[in-house]
Amino acid sequence: MVLISGPSRQPVLDALCLGALQATRAISTDARLKNYIPLQCSGLFGMTDIPDLSLPQIQQRVVAMWMGSFYGSSGYVARRLGKKGLREFQELGAKQVAATFKRIGLEKSIDVAQAIATNDKNLFGSEVSVTEEQGWIEIKRSRCGLLEGAKSFSRIGASLVAKEHCKTCMETHWRRVFSDLGLKMTGELTEDGCLMKIRE
Fold first, then answer.
1. Do both 39 and 114 map to the same domain?
2. Which of 42, 56, 65, 109 has the most crowded Cβ, counting Cβ within 10 A?
């Protein structure tokens, strides 16, 4: 690793910042991603006011960070350990989520559904509702923030297919989480989100 210090540091960092800005604005047609990088890099190395972000801006960054972390980790595991290693990694993640729910006292289907919907709405900006239908608790994502993120990554050239993301999310992750909690699940994908039904 080369550490940049002294007089050469500022122009190098300026170039990196401007390069990222130009690349993002050149390849992205998604206004949400275009706004991810500040419009100006001037004043970055002097005294400047730190802007307050709106809730949608915060949620966009959470989505981008979550997806980058998840798929970056999954890709690394798959390259190093193959499909079997990736399955074990995904199972471990699901078990950890289920264990967290149990540790904080969330095991009933209605409580689990409310917790999931609360995170989806507030962290990812999803439009989500929880209702009860014929003994099943329905978690309906009318607009999924993570699916929007997957579509955005696809548009800027990432090898991520939005519907494959949804399949991984529902079948590989949540089905395992619910199974560990002793809950039954059915689900279906929609154009902008999904519908998951769970019950004891």
1. no
2. 109
Compute the distance between CA of residue 109 and CA of residue 47 in angstroms, rounded to an integer.
51
Residue 2 lies in a domain: no
- HEC readout, 157-176: CCCCCHHHHHHHHHHHHHHH
Tokens (6 digits) for 56: 């949608």
Sign, CA dihedral 181-184-189-190, equals negative
117 and 41: one domain?
no
pTM score above 0.70: yes
* 61 and 159 housed in the same domain: yes
Give the domain range for residue 29: 11-46
In a domain, 4, yes or no: no
Average pLDDT score over residue span 107-113: 95
In this structure, the answer to whether residues 161 and 181 fall within a common structural domain is yes
Q: How many CB atoms lie within 10 A of CB 185?
A: 20
What Rg value do the Cα atoms of the chain yield, rounded?
20
Residues 156-196 pLDDT 10s = 766 667 778 999 999 999 999 999 999 999 999 999 999 99
In a domain, 90, yes or no: yes
Considering its fold, how many domains does the chain have in total? 2
